What we know:
By secondary structure, the chain is α/β, with parallel strands linked by helices. The chain has helices at residues 3-41, 59-74, 97-105, 116-124; strands at residues 50-54, 80-87, 109-113. A three-stranded parallel sheet has the order 1-2-3, with helices on one face. Helix 2 links the parallel strand 1 (50-54) and strand 2. The radius of gyration is 21 Å and the shape is globular.
Amino acid sequence: MKLQPILKRQLVPLRDLRKDAYEEAKLAKRIRRQVGEAIRDFAMIAEGDRVMVCLSGGKDSHGMLDVLLSLQEKAPVRFELVAVNLDQKQPGFPAHVRPEYPGACGVPLRILGLCTSSVLKAVIA
């Protein structure tokens, strides 16, 4: 008799995990479809294009890279992806983080360095 409540408690989280995974996959598919439609409707990418993805380090730019990577696999045209990051020379920023993700995805990363604080001081002064 004591076994049934224990089993019920263990099955509910599994069901929630499946539902969460299903919803995530559904959202990812919708985003890919809408981005693909926009690319097609506005002729944003053509055969042989090199597409620059600006990686700020935030979720949105990494999300865009993910979407373009998944579209690249199934696109009717071949295109290349290049990730670019502007290193603003902010003290304490973990520099090792930048190349890890694009490199793991097989996307070349170019880092452009510019000390924005010195530019800002020159403009304000």
